[in-house]
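Quick bug: peptidylprolyl isomerase output formatted oddly.
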Amino acid sequence: MFIHEINNSKMLYRMLSLSILLSALFYGCATTPAMMDTIVVGDTVKVDYTCRIENGDILVTTRKEAAQDTSAHLSHAYIPNKAYAPVIIPVGKESLLPEKPIIRPATGEIAVHLSKQLEGLSYEGTHHLTVTTEAIADLPKMERFMQYARTMRRPKQRSISKAQFVTNTGQEPVAGEILFADRAMPWKVLSVSADSVEVKYLLKEGQKVMLPYGEAVVHDQGDHYELEIETRPGGLVRVGPYIGRIVDITDKLFIVDFEHPFGGRELACEVTATRVEESLDDIMDSASAEGEQAP
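Here's what came back:
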């Protein structure tokens, strides 16, 4: 009788263990793909994003199709990309701040904040994220504030090196070709020599053009153009990769504050992420090796 009860207990224990094992296998198989599709700290991801300011204008994008979409509106402070491509972001990795405060480029600041916000999101679909950042504390006044002339002078035509032309346009020069026809200051290629390219700006008196500083009115001065910038307090300004905000205007100058990497604005970003199997260190090593092999 006692032995029979022991055997029954063993059988019950085995059945219970088998049931637990089957449940674990079933639910484990059901949840593992979902877990694998979720971004976690330590992942390295390729991120495409398009970030807009409050009026819907695009400030920066990694997507060529977004930048060239005729129905989209680019901010006058739009940050152009020489090569549109996803950015590599290590999720959750702490960024090292410089020893002393310096102005920071907007694209780098976006990457830092996306690294913090991607954790827990899915690798599938498009995510709508709000990206904000704090002002740079203790930024020296000499770096924080810059002044610029309200009237800019531009030659009607100029000569540039062929290498610089290719860098600026992404293509070889062809005499007679008009470039940037859809932009504020289109060029016409007048002539091409072995090492240089002669280009002409196609502007008209009274024409309004959009510059990184804001809208400007063209004044034809015979041998050159003068571009009178219509500045306004609080307006965004782009200088290279940096975004600033106009804080003061005089008869001839305007003052730009670079304390805030986004000019004090809140960015609405459309973001997609793709898993990268290589580690960030491996990617950096590969990039360094390619750079060393380049002629």
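Actually, after a second look the formatting is fine. The two ends are 88 Å apart (CA to CA). Closing.
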